[in-house]
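Sanity check

After download, print the first record. It should look like this:
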Amino acid sequence: MSVSKKIATFGEAMVEFFDTGDNCWRRGFAGDSLNVAWALRALLPNSCTVDYVTRIGVDGVSSDLLQFLEESSLGTGGISRDPHRTLGLYTIKTDPQGERSFDYWRSQSAAKCLADDPLELEHVLAQFDWVYLSGISAAVIESQGRKNLLAVIESLRARGVKFAYDPNFRPKLWSSLDEMRDFTRQITALSALVLPTFDDELAAFGDSSPQATAERLLSWGTEQVIVKNGTEPTLVASPSARQSCAVEHPVTPIDTTGAGDSFNGGFLSAFVQGSAPEDAVRRGQAVAARVVVQRGALVPYSELREIH
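Expected structure tokens:
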């Protein structure tokens, strides 16, 4: 039986231009938090609402994003508009060997100001049962904004809102390793669920194993840790239990864009409705497997809904 929940993902959606050759570029919209919202909307029943919370401009491309979200059945009531900024943008090029390169333009991204008004942010997020955000969501926000964000999360946590956090470490987005580590420690203590990827944690914290990652995060105060590790088993850890969940149906990936995000969306779609963590992991693995054998992170809803 489905359970009605209100869920939001919080972060930055960007304009994506993909080089298709012959000086032609295909435009789309992308972002790690958007990928999670997409999977959640595909997999949750209509009795559950899924909103995307971000900040955009008032220009045409920002309005195009808003229309895309609405057409994708994602709630947009928590989106604010900034008359002085626009969307971040990035390009993707693929070399003859199939390796992709990215260039980013984020300096005028409205999402950098997402947490500038903590009272407004708290008002927006207070309506949800669960809020998902990531280290990318946090890193693009200015330093004072991150302080505001932590204060809002602490206040809402006391009121029953649960937060899920993926550290999603991107070194270029942080001014220093110490800044990222300190923020991760603080937000972990406020999060009901943390969903790291082991390779990121190895790079950021030097963890020797997924078990070491889980122990560190649990010691910082979270209730549940799910450590993703590619095709290796996913580690499920809580203060009272540890379990490894093997990837049941390994696939040969074509494009790993959004693999971790789609896992997170699949996992959360089951977990927030009361599934055991191990069962939610299996759904997350199945969703990621479906996504990585296609180009791009936003697989049509109809295909994701074939997953049970």
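If your output differs, re-run the checksum step. Summary of this record's structure: The longest helix spans residues 143-158.
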